[in-house]
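Course exercise 7: structure representation. Students receive a sequence record and must write out the corresponding structure in token form. The form below is the worked example handed out in class, using Small ribosomal subunit protein uS14 (101 residues). Read each field label carefully; the graders check that inputs and outputs are placed in the correct fields and that the protein name is recorded exactly as given.

STUDENT ID: A-19
EXERCISE PROTEIN: Small ribosomal subunit protein uS14
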Amino acid sequence: MAKKSSIEKNKHRRELVAKYAEKRAALLATANDESRSMEERFEARLKLAELPRNSSKTRIVNRCGVTGRPRAYYRKLGMSRIALRELGSQGLIPGLVKSSW
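STUDENT ANSWER:
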């Protein structure tokens, strides 16, 4: 099980990303628009830099929904390989059979 603080920190990041998504998208569109003046684009970049760092989508860490583990995460299932194996061994995931030889 991951530290509770790490899981909560990641939840907070997800909330910030959702909160600032529109503002960030608008500033990025302005900053990348070639038809605007250089001063406008630079000002948009400065405003973008003033936003909280954790409001950037790239700061979110994919974590296992069961254990909170950040590594070996399957996006399609939303859990780590270890949680998948344990739930599969218990027969809680339909269609999954743990192979043994």
